[in-house]
Amino acid sequence: MRIAKTITVAFLISFLSVSVSAATPEPPSGFRTTKWGAPPAGGLKKLMGPTSDGTSMYVPSSRKKPQPLFEIPVAEEAYSYTRGKFYSGSAWLDGQANLEKMKVALSKVYGPPSFANEQSYLWKWRWPAKKIEVHLYYQSKFSRTTVTFLNNGI
Question: Kindly report the CA angle at 119 between 70 and 124, in degrees rounded to 5?
Fold first, then answer.
């Protein structure tokens, strides 16, 4: 009887872990159309760098307003490279209403955040095995939201 219970519990744990992992959304493969590890695209201009650790930041070379992200208006955006490989992209949104819209959009695509601190206006989605994260942060002083897609494995 005890062996049957042990087998049943082991089966349920195995089944539940497969069900949970199957439901886990895939991490982003980059930011917008830029894939992790790619070199700087032609439509970007260097804003700064490289720093002593090889990091450079780029912004779109066009003066046109950036395209919306998840159908939410973007005020500015930047792309970060380390030793010529793309590892991070950020978009800045104006107003607290856009923070709420982005929080809903990210949760719809990536599920609930892995970390949330409502008082600090900070949310993170993490995929530790792939070292990929998405951060959402709001600065009330400036009424500005930053959403950053980051690959710590590059």
Answer: 40
Tell me how many domains the chain contains. 1
Domain-located, residue 1: no
What pLDDT is recorded for position 89? 98
Whether 106 maps to a domain, the answer reads yes
Residue from 116, 105, 42, 45 nearest 71 by CA: 105
What is this structure's pTM?
A: 0.83
Across the chain, which has 154 residues, the per-10-residue mean pLDDT values are 46 41 83 98 95 96 93 98 98 97 98 97 98 98 98 97
How many C-beta atoms lie closer than 10 Å to residue 107's C-beta? Answer: 15
Contact 98, 72 (CB under 8 A): yes
Q: Is residue 5 situated within a structural domain?
A: no
State the amino acid at position 22 in one-letter form: A
Alpha-carbon 63 to chain mean position: 25
φ, ψ of residue 119 to 5 degrees: the values are -65, -35
Range of the structural domain that residue 97 is part of = 27-151
- From CA 142, how far away is CA 150, in angstroms rounded? 23
Looking at residue 14, what is its pLDDT? 44
Would 9 be classed as within a structural domain? no
